[in-house]
Write a structure and sequence with these properties.
about 110 residues
């Protein structure tokens, strides 16, 4: 089965593990499938300046899609609580959330 999904800053899908899609809320037949592209873009030398303009229309639209470091902490916490963080970026997400909870900076001063 093939699934096509677009980006949204308030997606109805998350990605767990090595690519399993998980619903973040009920999805009705015919609804557009969306996920947060930023959670699939790890921070590295190639992606640190990568950005894509966002016009998803969500109330909480960030207007910009970048690497995982561009996602606000509260959004990362929501994805973690839902178990919707892909293996590709899970370590970085946990580092950023832990640093925020401890009041410190994340690795490499972020």
């Amino acid at each position: 089965m093939s699934v096509a999904a677009n980006h949204s800053c308030d997606p109805n899908l998350g990605i767990r593990g090595d690519g399993d899609l998980v619903a973040l809320r009920p999805i009705a037949a015919g609804d557009e499938l969306t996920y947060d592209y930023s959670l699939t873009v790890p921070r590295n030398v190639f992606t640190r300046t990568w950005h894509l303009a966002c016009a998803c229309g969500a109330d909480r639209c960030r207007r910009d899609v970048g690497n995982v470091d561009t996602v606000p902490i509260d959004v990362l916490q929501r994805y973690l609580a839902a178990g919707a963080v892909p293996d590709l970026t899970a370590r970085r997400v946990r580092e950023r959330v832990a640093a925020d909870l401890s009041g410190g900076c994340g690795p490499r001063g972020t």
